[in-house]
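Tokens as discussed.
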């Protein structure tokens, strides 16, 4: 009986030693994996590997695929070259058909008349471009219009990033938000698909300011389409909440931050003034991408010009899935 008990004791000890060894091996593997990802030489090697994998590029695809761009795709796929390559190739295919760099403000200006989404005239404390969104001012039921407007603002925000910056911040004010002003789930889903699939690692942080209770159900329905990294970047903040106020101070200068978001600044959207700024930016965008403005527009029946027809994001999403 003593021998049997001793044998069981040794077996338990062996099992415990095995478990400890296994845990140590796993920890060593994770540390090594983390160290490889954080090692500059390893990252540069991965970038070179990805560039070789996607092969020769030309035109706008070549201009798009900077080293910083490749790093973002690698980061989005945990530095797995094969997965990053697939993701990047899907983006290049989407950009070649949807042509986001060719969207011009006058084509989407009607979507922005109420100021439901715009680029702020200030930056966060890291010098990042800030997009302000006010879903309570939704003025359109057009899925395509809403998505093209969003894509235009994303491209514009990227064009206005300071040198060395790759990400932007979002401020989302839910004042006036209701079921009547919310976009359909499908539109939200298609927007998320484009944001995650074609603008990886562009979002630094998104502040959801004073969301109503009804939004919680809406968020729960859409967050399952978000990856875990994106979910971590979403911050819920509330007025007259000490923790929220302190959190906002770590990201923004309160003198610049509009009072709607707990700061002392003033948020006043002037559609005409914003349109003038966007028209100036459109010139810079065309020059950057080498777009011939005389040929990339076609006239519609009302005498205005619109972008050449491109597949709707929903269709592109279906094709890529």
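Sequence:
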């Amino acid at each position: 009986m003593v021998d049997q008990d001793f044998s069981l004791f040794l077996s338990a000890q062996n099992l415990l030693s095995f478990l400890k060894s296994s845990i140590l091996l796993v920890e060593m593997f994770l540390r090594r994996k983390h160290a490889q990802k954080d090692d500059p030489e390893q990252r540069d090697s991965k970038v070179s590997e990805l560039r070789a994998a996607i092969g020769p590029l030309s035109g706008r695809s070549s201009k798009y695929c900077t080293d910083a761009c490749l790093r973002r795709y690698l980061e989005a796929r945990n530095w797995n070259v094969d997965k990053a390559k697939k993701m990047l190739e899907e983006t290049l295919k989407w950009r070649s058909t949807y042509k986001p760099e060719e969207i011009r403000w006058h084509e989407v200006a009607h979507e922005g008349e109420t100021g439901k989404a715009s680029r702020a005239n200030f930056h966060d404390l890291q010098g990042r471009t800030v997009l302000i969104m006010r879903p309570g001012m939704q003025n359109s039921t057009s899925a395509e219009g809403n998505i093209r407007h969003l894509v235009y603002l994303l491209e514009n925000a990227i064009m206005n990033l300071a040198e060395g910056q790759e990400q932007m911040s979002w401020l989302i004010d839910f004042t006036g938000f209701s079921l009547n002003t919310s976009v359909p789930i499908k539109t939200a889903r298609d927007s998320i698909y484009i944001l995650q699939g074609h603008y990886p690692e562009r979002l630094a942080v998104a502040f959801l300011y004073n969301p109503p209770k009804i939004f919680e159900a809406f968020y729960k329905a859409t967050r399952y389409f978000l990856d875990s990294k994106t979910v971590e970047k979403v911050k819920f903040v509330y007025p007259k909440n000490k923790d929220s106020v302190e959190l906002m101070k770590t990201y923004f200068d309160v003198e610049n931050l509009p009072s709607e978001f707990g700061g002392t600044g003033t948020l006043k959207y002037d559609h005409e003034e914003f349109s003038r700024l966007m028209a100036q930016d459109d010139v810079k965008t065309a020059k950057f991408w080498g777009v011939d403005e005389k040929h990339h527009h076609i006239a519609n029946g009302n005498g205005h010009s619109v972008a050449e027809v491109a597949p709707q994001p929903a269709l592109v999403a279906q094709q890529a899935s």
